Amino acid sequence: MRKLINLKNNVVELNSIKAISLNGYINLEPTNRIKIEFKLRKEYIYNPNIELWELETLTDVLYIDFPDYDTAKVHLDEMFGEWQAYLDEEN
């Protein structure tokens, strides 16, 4: 079953997520950014130099900025809850 969620105007398919993280180190910037890593995907890309289609492995990452760390942490917890509920349904 496919499930889509809206993350600050970015629609994400839950089964495509590999990892969700938030920078918790206060001395590093930005601490208010959630990083969503997606599973690897393969796509054919045309290479004009050799005039052939080549199969490439692509890694997609989405960064979502929040006004402060506390707001980002609340959203991270909500995202994790949605993702966990989806994974529980699948198993």
Overview of the structural elements:
The chain is an alpha+beta fold. It has one domain. The protein is 24% helix and 41% strand. The chain has one helix and seven strands, in the order βββββββα. The chain has a three-stranded antiparallel β-sheet, covered by helices on one side. The protein has a two-stranded antiparallel sheet with strand order 1-2. The mean pLDDT is 86.
- Spatial sequence of strands, sheet with the most strands: 3-4-7
Global mean pLDDT: 86
Number of strands: 7
Low-pLDDT residue spans: none
Strand content: 35-45%
Largest sheet: 3 strands, antiparallel
Report, as a whole number of angstroms, the end-to-end distance.
Answer: 11 Å
Helical content stands at 10-25%
Main structural class: alpha+beta
> Count of helical segments?
1
Order of helices and strands: EEEEEEEH
**Overall outline:** extended
Task: Classify the oligomer.
Answer: single chain
Radius of gyration: 16 Å
Counting structural domains, the number is: 1
